[in-house]
Amino acid sequence: MGTLLEQLAAHPLPTWWQDAKLGIFVHWTMASVPAYAPIGRDPFALAREEGEWAAFAKTPYVEWYQNSVAIPGSPAAEHHRTTYGDRPYDAFRDEWTAAHAGWDAGAWAELFARAGAAYCVMVTKHHDGYCLWPTEVPNPHRPGWASARDLVGECAAAVRAAGIRFGTYYSGGLDWTFQGLGIQSWQTLFAAIPQSPEYHAYADAHWRELMDRYSTEMLWNDIGYPGFGPGAEQLMADFYARTPYGVVNDRFDIIGTRTGTAHADFVTPEYSSGPPPEGRAFEVCRGIGTSFGYNALETEASYLAAADLVRLFVDIVADGGNLLLNVGPMASGAIPWAQRQRLLALGDWLAVNEPAIRGSQPAATSRGATTEGITVRYTRGADGATYAIVCGRPSGAVVEIAGLPAGEVTLLGHYATLHRQGDAVWLPARPDDVPAWTLRLGPVTDRAPGEGVAG
Q1: What is the DSSP string of 302-367?
Q2: pLDDT surpasses 70 at 228
C-alpha cells in the first residue's frame, strides 16, 4: 500500500479542475468595514524592493488590517488611530453583521456564472479567526467568534444551483485569536503558526466540519498547518475517501510540497502569471485590484483593466494553469461596481472564445507573434484543434503570424472558413479593440448551413 504520503501522491488530478480554467475567490471579512490598506505593490514585490518590514507594514491586503494596525508606525496603524482611536478590531463585528443583513448569495452566483467561472472558493475563516458559519467547534479563546448566520452554506447552495462547484478556504496557519499579531517579517510569520495539540485539533475539526456540512470539493488551506504538513495527511486521505474528485492545494506545507515531503494537487502562485518552475499543476490567485479584501481606496487606476485581465487570463491558460480571480465584497455583501465590470467583461470575452480556453492544454508551441509584433498565445482545444489567440488589434484585415500551424482557419464567433496563404489570413474585417481574438486551426465541424469560404 505504501506510506500515507505515497497513497496521497497517487491521487489523480480531477479532469473537472484541469478543464475549469477559471474560479472565483471570495474574501469577505469584517475588515471590509474599515476597508483600508495603502494602495501599492503586492507584499512579495514590497519585500524584494523595500524589505520584509514593508511587506507587512505596508501590505495592500485589507484582510490583514488587524495585523497591520498592530505594527507601530504602519500606515494602517496611523489610519486607525486617527479614524477610530483605540477601538478594537473586534468592535467591527456588529457593524459588519448589520450591514449584510440583506445580503443575497444568489446575486453572487448569478455574477460568477456570467463571468464564466467553473468553481468558487469562499473564505470561511481568515487570519482573524472569525468563522463565517455557525460552527459547533467553539473558539477556546473567544467565545461566540462565529457567524450565527450560515454565510458559507448560503453561498455554497447558491453557486451550486448556478452550476458552479464549491470549495472552501480556511486559514490553517494563522489564527490571531490564538497567537501571532504584529507579524512584520517572514520569521515572525512562521513563528506565529500555532503548533499546540489544542490548535491542531481545532483546525482539524473545522476542516472536517466544512467537509461534512458543505461537501466541499476543494481544501484551500493558507499559510501552513500545525506540524507544517504531516498533521494534514490523514485529513487529506479522509477527504479523498469521501470526495475522490476533490482537490487539495499546496498551502498546508508549501516547502514540503516543493521538496516532496508533503502532498498537494496543485501549487498556488500569488499575483504571478508565470508557470511554476517545477512544472506542477498550478492556479494563480490574485485580486482584481491590489487587495483581496475590499479596499475603499481602490480606483480605476489601481484595478486591473478589463483588457489586461483578459490577456492575463489567456497567458495563464496557455501556460497550462487556472486563474482563481478574487472578489472583495463590501461589508453589505455587494461586489463593487468596478469589480463587477471586469467580471462581466471577462465573461463576455469567454462566451465567444471558450473553445480555446475550457478544457484546453498548452500547445506544442505556446507563443508566437504577428509580423506587427502582436503577441499570439496557442492552446490545444478539447476538440483537438489548435487555437491561436491574438492579444491585440491588427492594423488591417489581413494578419500574418509567423509559423502559423497548418489547417483550415476560422475565427471564433464567425462561421465561415477564412482564406489563408501560408502564414497570412484574411479576416472578415479588421477586429475592433477587443483584448484578444481567436483563430481556430483544424477541420471545420460547426459550419452553419450554406456557409463557405470567406475571401
Answers
A1: TSPPHHHHHHHHHHHHHTT-EEEEEE---TTSPPPHHHHHHHHHHHHHHHHHGGGTTT-EEEEEEE
A2: no
Confidence at residue 276, expressed as pLDDT on a 0 to 100 scale: 77
Q: Rounded to 10 degrees, what is the CA torsion of 429, 433, 436, 440?
A: -10
pLDDT tens digits, residue range 347-379? Answer: 999 999 999 999 999 999 999 999 999 999 999
Closest by CA to 286, choosing from 314, 263, 309, is 309
Q: Are strands 361-369 and 375-380 parallel, antiparallel or unpaired?
A: antiparallel
327: β partners: 26
| Cα–Cα nearest to 271, from 75, 32, 48, 14 | 48
Task: Give the residue-averaged pLDDT of 277-291.
Answer: 93
Q: Which residue shows C-alpha cell 498537494?
A: 264
User: What is the residue-wise DSSP string for 93-158?
Assistant: HHHHHHHTTT--HHHHHHHHHHHT-SEEEEEEE-TT--BSS--SS--SSSTT-B-SS-HHHHHHHH
Instruction: Measure the CA–CA gap between 166 and 240, rounded to whole angstroms.
Output: 15
Chain-centroid distance of CA 383 in Å reads: 26
The answer to whether the beta carbons of residues 401 and 423 sit under 8 Å apart is yes
Cβ contact 350:22 at 8 Å: yes
Q: Are 360 and 130 in contact (CB under 8 A)?
A: no
User: Which residues are CB-contacts of 243 (< 8 A; sequence separation ≥ 6)?
Assistant: 211, 215, 216, 217
* Residue carrying C-alpha cell 489570413: 425
Residue of 108, 211, 214, 122 whose CA lies nearest to 162? 108
- Report d(CA 192, CA 184) in Å as an integer: 11
Mean pLDDT of 283-301: 97
Q: What is the distance between the alpha carbons of residues 30 and 123, in angstroms, rounded to a whole number? A: 12
Instruction: Please give the DSSP secondary-structure letter assigned to residue 12.
Output: P
End-to-end Cα distance, the chain: 62
Q: Which one, of 30, 214, 36, 26, lies nearest residue 131 by Cα?
A: 30
CA distance 222 to 249: 9
Burial of 80 (0-12, 13-18, 19+ CB in 10 A): buried
Note whether 110 and 347 are within 8 A (CB).
no
Rounded to the nearest 10 degrees, the angle between the axes of helix 197-214 and helix 233-242 is: 10
Alpha-carbon distance of 227 to 196, in angstroms, equals 9
- pLDDT tens for 27-43 read 999 999 999 999 999 99
Work out the percent of the chain whose per-residue pLDDT is above 90. Answer: 93
